[in-house]
């Protein structure tokens, strides 16, 4: 049945020793697993860098293969109200653990989605059942977790994975799946993923559906991203006052790759560093990109706004 499992789950590390990256954090978690004792934990950081994997691997290392009997996993973005804290969480927290470790674990993924009332109720629950239950909270933005909960947890800040760490995992999966991964294709996966391991694995799996030979063109098309050189060329055409050519290139990119306006803007933002213009002109371009990104977020027409941005680039020089 493994062929029907998404690769992000199929290749999810089963224990802390298999996790790629986050060495300092993993070292501390291994010590907790060895002692079979731990405080409440708060994992903070951007998505796709191993927060959920670390929590599940820690539970497996503490309890063994039957870890699901001692772990309650909830996604707070689905169940974010006070009733969940007073119901499911409190009911599980008050029962005594029958495993080797003297406590159970409640893992709240995306805890920054919990309402303020739910977080205040959770604070009291964490105090009352600290002898029999430990909490692991995962959040993209730790600032959205109220201070009383943060003070009850050891806070671990996960960082985006480096290119070497992402490469290590992607190459291992490609080898196990029998794929021929070109060097430029690996660089394309790293460009698309931006340190997000989940996005990197999804990009590899999407490309593998088309061919066993993974090329950069395949990666960009299956990820709805344009090649960086194409975005750079489009911006250079606009800066050279060749607006109609730049506009044609934009239409081709959005139709060929199925990109949204925001996708185009993000790639234009990345390309600014490589444009043959002065520092002052780069500042002006970034200012314009930020302005037009705000317009898109507010609901303006995508094609119209990106074309207007290209027109603005003519004024920069």
Q: Whole-Å distance between the termini?
A: 58 Å
| Fraction in helix | 55-70%
Describe the main β-sheet briefly.
Answer: 5 strands, parallel
Give the CATH superfamily of the largest domain: P-loop containing nucleotide triphosphate hydrolases
Give the C-alpha Rg: 23 Å
The name CATH uses for the topology of the largest domain is Rossmann fold
Please outline what is shown here.
With 317 residues, the chain is of the alpha/beta class. It has helices spanning 7-10, 23-35, 51-63, 82-93, 116-128, 147-151, 163-176, 183-193, 197-208, 216-222, 228-239, 243-257, 261-271, 279-297, 302-316; strands at residues 40-44, 71-75, 104-109, 133-139, 153-157, 180-181, 213-214. It is globular and about 70 Å long.
Task: Write structural notes for this entry.
Helices cover 56% and strands 10% of the residues. It contains 15 helices and seven strands. The N and C termini lie far apart (58 Å). With 317 residues, it is an alpha/beta fold. It has three domains: 156 residues, P-loop containing nucleotide triphosphate hydrolases (Rossmann fold), CATH 3.40.50.300; 60 residues, Orthogonal Bundle (Helicase, Ruva Protein, domain 3), CATH 1.10.8.60; 89 residues, Zinc Finger, Delta Prime, domain 3 (Up-down Bundle). The longest helix has 19 residues. It is globular. 36% of the residues are buried. A five-stranded parallel sheet has the order 2-3-4-1-5, with helices on both faces.
Give the key terms.
single chain, Rossmann fold, 15 helices, two-stranded parallel sheet, Zinc Finger, Delta Prime, domain 3, 317 residues, alpha/beta, Helicase, Ruva Protein, domain 3, five-stranded parallel sheet
């Amino acid at each position: 049945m493994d062929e029907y499992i998404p690769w992000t789950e199929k290749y999810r590390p089963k224990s802390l020793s298999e996790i790629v990256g986050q060495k300092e954090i993993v070292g501390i978690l291994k010590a907790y697993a060895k002692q079979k004792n731990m405080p409440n934990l708060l994992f903070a950081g951007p998505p796709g860098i191993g927060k959920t994997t670390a929590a599940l691997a820690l539970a497996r290392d503490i309890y063994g293969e039957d870890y699901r009997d001692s772990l309650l996993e909830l996604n707070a973005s689905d169940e974010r109200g006070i009733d969940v804290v007073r119901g499911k969480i409190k009911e599980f927290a008050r029962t005594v653990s029958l495993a080797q470790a003297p406590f159970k674990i409640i893992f709240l993924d995306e805890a920054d989605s919990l309402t303020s009332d739910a977080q205040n109720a959770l604070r009291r629950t964490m105090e009352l059942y600290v002898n029999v239950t430990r909490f692991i909270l995962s959040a993209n933005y730790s600032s959205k977790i109220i201070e009383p909960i943060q003070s009850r947890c050891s806070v671990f800040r996960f960082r985006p994975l480096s290119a070497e760490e992402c490469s290590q995992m992607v190459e291992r999966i490609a080898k196990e799946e029998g794929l021929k991964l070109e060097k430029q294709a690996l660089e394309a996966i790293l460009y698309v993923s931006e340190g997000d391991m989940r996005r990197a694995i999804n990009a590899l799996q999407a490309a593998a559906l088309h061919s066993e030979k993974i090329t950069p063109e395949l990666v960009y098309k299956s990820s709805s991203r344009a090649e960086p050189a194409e975005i750079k060329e489009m911006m250079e055409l606009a800066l050279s006052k060749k607006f109609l050519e730049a506009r044609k290139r934009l239409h081709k990119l959005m139709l060929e790759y199925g990109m949204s306006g925001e996708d185009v803007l993000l790639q234009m933002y990345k390309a600014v560093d490589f444009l043959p213009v002065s520092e002052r002109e780069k500042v002006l371009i970034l200012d314009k990109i930020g302005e037009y990104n705000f317009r898109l977020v507010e609901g303006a027409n995508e094609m119209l706004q990106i074309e207007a941005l290209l027109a603005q680039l003519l004024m920069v020089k």
